[in-house]
Design brief:
Distance between the termini: 32 Å
Largest sheet: 4 strands, mixed
Strand order of the largest sheet: 2-1-3-4
Oligomer: single chain
Number of strands: 4
Structural class: alpha+beta
Helix content: 40-55%
Number of helices: 10
Shape: globular
Order of helices and strands: EHEEEHHHHHHHHH
């Protein structure tokens, strides 16, 4: 089943999910992505914003393509994003962003050469991995993914998750943003695009995380203004449609090999 109605132009990033299976490439940078994935979107935005040439290899997570060797290179971790640069294979979004920053000598503000400024980014990204990614991903699981396999996340767990998000947002403001323009400095860095994509995963599902948080709302506006409206719209076009697609039952039924993984992930929601 197609995930996107046929009315979308085929060049639209939301339709990247409809592309045919990836064919092996002998040279050049390849990025294996699904724009449903927050880390995939961060890598996509970074590569596009910096004019880094790459071949997009679309991987549809909902169809379980990340479990199929036809769609991901051998020795991947069976998740996206994945970078393949010739014979070099790299998993994990943070490692990929750093690799792209250094190899393509992007502007210094993204991943500064100054050691202490660079460590501020790593400080945030370490906290992000522990406190943001798993917490802010729950909304998509509860509202979209769990219902695909007939599971309902309890109201108690949803209230617990919302409280955890509120605490994380407050800490993000007080510890990292404070009176700066961006999370770790006065210029946008890798930390900001990683954070933006995680928060957007909740916003598109109808939860305004920025209400009553003017500092964080202003930060979001600065990041999106720096990236550009066109690039943000391009990158977020599919995720903005996910709630409507789910409501209209236009998402595919996960294959059997996905069910056990999904059940395990849902069971881990605190």
């Amino acid at each position: 089943m197609d995930l996107i109605p046929g009315s979308c132009p085929r060049c639209c990033p939301c339709c990247l999910r409809l592309l045919p299976p990836a064919r092996p490439a002998t040279m050049g940078l390849e990025l294996y992505l699904d724009l449903l994935s927050q880390p995939s979107r961060a890598v996509y935005i970074f590569a596009k914003k910096n004019g880094i040439p790459f071949q997009l290899r679309a991987v549809d997570l909902l169809k379980g393509q990340h479990l199929n060797s036809e769609f991901l290179p051998a020795n991947s971790l069976q998740r996206v994003p994945v970078l393949k640069d010739g014979d070099f294979l790299l998993n994990e979004s943070v490692a990929i962003l750093i690799y792209l920053s250094i190899k393509y000598q992007t502007a210094d503000h993204w991943y500064p050469s100054d050691l202490q400024a660079r460590m501020r980014i790593h400080e945030y990204l370490g906290w992000h991995g522990d406190c943001i990614h798993s917490t802010f991903g729950v909304s998509l699981w509860a509202q979209v993914l769990a219902p695909l396999i007939g599971i309902q996340v309890s109201e108690e767990k949803l209230k617990h998750n919302r409280a955890a998000m509120d605490r994380a947002l407050q800490f993000m403001e007080d510890k990292f943003l404070r009176d700066k323009a961006f999370l770790t400095s006065q210029q946008v860095t890798l930390a900001d695009i990683m954070a933006l994509e995680e928060l957007m995963q909740v916003v598109v599902l109808g939860c305004d995380l920025f209400e009553g948080r003017p500092r964080l709302a202003a930060w979001r506006q600065r990041v999106e203004a720096f990236l550009g409206a066109d690039l943000c719209r391009e990158t977020h076009s599919f995720i903005w449609s996910i709630r409507e697609l789910a409501a209209n039952k236009k998402l595919p039924d996960p294959p059997p090999e996905m069910r056990s993984r999904m059940l395990l992930r849902i069971a881990r929601i605190p």
